[in-house]
UniProtKB/TrEMBL annotation:
One of its GO terms (molecular function) is polygalacturonase activity. It comes from the Eukaryota. Keywords: Cell wall, Cell wall biogenesis/degradation, Glycosidase, Hydrolase, Secreted, Signal. PANTHER family: PTHR31375. It is found in: Secreted, Cell wall. Its main location: secreted. Belongs to the glycosyl hydrolase 28 family. This is Pectate lyase superfamily protein domain-containing protein.
Amino acid sequence: MAFNVLLFSAYVVVISFFLCSVDAKVNLMNASSLTNGDDSLRGRSLESKKIVFDVRKHGAYGDGQHDDTKALTNAWAAACSYSQPSIVLIPKGKRYLTKHITLSGPCKSSITLMALTFYSCSNLKMENLKLVNSQQIHMSVEDCRDVRISGLTITAPGTSPNTDGIHITRSKNVQVTGCTIKTGDDCMSIEDGTENLHVKNMVCGPGHGISIGSLGDHNSEAHVNNVTIDTVRLYGTTNGARIKTWQGGRGYAKNIVFQNMIMENVWNPIIIDQNYCDSATPCKKQVSNVVFKNIRGTSASKEAIRLDCSRNVPCQGITLKDVKLTVKGGGGDAKSTCRNAKWKKSGTVIPQPCASSK
């Protein structure tokens, strides 16, 4: 029971999943589109003289219980065969269960996806997908397991807020490889319930870098375990390798590795921030067993390393190994600051770690 997408004769996209609900959004360019829409979308599509192919008119229930495979396939086929700009409308707030689907091209008009959200999926596979100018998160994977994502290209203006590239939450056994992400927020956000995540060969920037968190907002409990970020290039991002938690939150973020990273003009190259928003209540979330290894490049600020941990539950087991970060343009020596952090270094570490491990 898988879901496969093949678009264009020379460009292949594959999405596969088991018993999964999906929301999708696209922009209203001259394109055959797959969208999770509302009345405003329908209004704009009429203004643009686009034909709307509503999956409900092709028999979809959207109740999370009935099999909507045939309805989605038929709506896609109708839009794909239409030579003018068109939209496949997947109504907002519904859950669509599918079995094996093949949505194939080439279509008579092109396609541009804006955003995708996958809920409660297993054996999810996405390859060579392009997402452009989402209003918020471009791709969200929630409550899923055994996920493979590769070859994604995600693009939005660097000034666009909340346009995270890939968002992972409450999901296990996830691999992300070979993606290029340029947005106005986190290239990748890793949140509560993420376990066994491996990211490799990513290009990030502009954006807010690779972020674990924010965790523990509204005094909640959150857990992240066993995350590896490997071989990433970051250009002009506000952060590089970041862990961020809210005061008052509980839980842990542990067994995390950031390695083989190149940063160019990154404002906060290495940062643990357990004081993400002002609060009188200290954070109770334990950050432990975190490795920053083989990280090189330039910082847009003098503070290249900041370990700002909870006074209530200090960071434990922080390792800096083979790190070399200098200030962009020769603007003086880079610095590091630490608070409530237990750390150690291995190999050459520039800037020098904090004066003491407190």
